[in-house]
Amino acid sequence: MHSAPCLDRIGRSESTEPLAPGSFEAEPHMIEPRTDLLIVGGGPAGTQAATTAASKGGKVTLIEKQVVGGAAHLLDCIPSKTMAASALRHSSVRNAEKLGLPTASTKVDIGVLSGRIRAITDDINRSWLELLGSQSVEIVYGHGRFVSDREVLVATDSGERRLGFERAMISTGSSPRVPEWAPVDGERVLTTRDCYDLTEVPEHLVVIGSGVTGVEFTHIFESLGSKVSLVVSRRQILPHRDAEVAAVLEEDFQERDVRLVIGARAEKIDVEAAGVSVFCDDGRVIRGSHALLAVGSVPLTDDLGLEAAGVDSDRGYIPVDEYQRTSQPHIYAAGDVTGQMPLSSVASMQGRKIAQHALGQPVTPLDYSKVPEAIFTEPEIASVGLVDVDAAALGRKVRTMKVPFAANARSVLQHFTRGFVKLTSDPATGVVLGGTIVGHRASELIGILTLAVQADVTVGTLVETLMVHPSMTESITDAAE
Ligand SMILES: Cc1cc2nc3c(=O)[nH]c(=O)nc-3n(C[C@H](O)[C@H](O)[C@H](O)COP(=O)(O)OP(=O)(O)OC[C@H]3O[C@@H](n4cnc5c(N)ncnc54)[C@H](O)[C@@H]3O)c2cc1C
């Protein structure tokens, strides 16, 4: 097995051992024996597919150009949630005085936090390498590119390797979108991937983009001690969520002195000695010490040889059918590169299903309408299934029930009263169709509703379910009442 590569500042591997033991320095252009499943990209989709296929006896090769674990574990999901964990504790500390626990420190130490991120991501990388190694998955480090519909050429540190496959999977992920007007330099003008090894807390951060990523980083940096201005291009933050949900978070941000610049679209950034100026389309100029771009992502399919493989793409994304097959049925695609739900959890599940399908096992296609999602602010926001904005858009009649956490004993005694539970059910059958939870640890509470939606549980069954008292879960059964 290949030993863990060192991670440099942006997560690229500085491999000291360019080839895995057991592999060989192939003559360029010599085609190596075919593998059952060849995976290009070792993020959650790729690693999960590799381990599932290997556990079922498949011969698996995984090509990764940076670090096994992928952007999710090393650059996006896990580092941002490690920062959010500190921000969450900070919320508790901020309220501690009200619980009789005065505390002197109200800021997060960025040095400790960066060290923690590195330790956690290194551990995850090591665990993946151990697991894949124990399953005899061959890992090839380098950039993979299809040269035909049966071969991939990998540019490794020690030359090119040409790998043949029976079936292949593309899981190369995405990277942050950088508009042409944004002079990203990693120092004053940042993408989210520049945030994990900052040595100083930005004095005044201008966050551009108020979707999930923008609001999470607003919450994080305000907790770290930054003054934060959030540029919101629509009339509310989280433009795709219902207004009631956005309002709870807006209220929290305003209480924390976050400046909400509503209805302004950033279109230019000037970098000066003292900081940055963000120019908006309505004439407003927001000055700060740093700017952070949170304006979406782009698929990583450049230089992947899709044409040579005969795989169709659409504006860089790879369309797939319900079994994740591309226009070439023996080549699958999973994760962010497909433009489906850009979530680590979804990418892993797609990878698992692809491995089963590729090895000829029966597979139930993933039901995207029942995938839970969470936003890691405080309060957290989590939802699953058909929520009332979706129902309104579809013109579907639903029954909606809402209970505020201010009426929940555990919330009150913990001093986390902001938010609510909102359930939607079918008026005819009483089956729970979906729900939204805005509140402390909503990302955990949503598990109950996810199971209810998945298993077609009725509100009657929820009402009959006895929950611990006092607990926040009681609000779920109360909403069902
Ligand atoms: C700031 C942020 C926070 C997030 N938080 C969450 C969260 O809390 N929960 C959640 O579920 N999702 C979260 N996401 C989304 C999640 O990170 C992605 O959905 C997930 O990374 C997608 O996984 P993937 O396997 O498609 O690709 P990735 O994780 O991007 O991995 C792709 C891999 O392919 C490699 N690669 C690319 N091209 C090649 C090539 N040609 N040859 C070889 N290797 C290649 C890359 O080096 C990379 O390692 C977050 C995203 C961001 C930006």
Description:
The protein is an alpha/beta fold and 481 residues long. The chain contains 13 helices and 24 strands. The strands form 6 sheets. Strands 3, 4, 5, 6, 7, 8 and 19 form a 7-stranded mixed beta sheet that branches. A 5-stranded parallel beta sheet has the order 10-17-11-12-13, with helices on one face. Strands 20-21-24-23-22 form a 5-stranded antiparallel beta sheet. A hairpin with a 4-residue loop joins strand 20 (373-375) and strand 21. Helix 3 crosses helix 4 and helix 3 (77-96) packs across helix 5. It is globular and about 70 Å long.
Please estimate the helix content: 25-40%
Portion in strands: 25-35%
What would you call the structural class?
Answer: alpha/beta
Largest sheet: 7 strands, mixed
Overall shape: globular
Radius of gyration: 24 Å
Report the average pLDDT across residues: 91
Helix count from the secondary structure assignment: 13
What small molecules does the structure contain?
flavin-adenine dinucleotide
Distance between the termini: 55 Å
- What are the segments in which pLDDT stays under 50 over at least 5 consecutive residues? 1-28
What is the number of beta strands? 24
Jot down its keywords.
481 residues, alpha/beta, 5-stranded parallel β-sheet, globular, disordered N terminus
Would you summarize the structure shown here?
The chain has 481 residues and is of the alpha/beta class. The protein is built from 13 helices and 24 strands. β23 (420-425) and β24 form a beta hairpin.
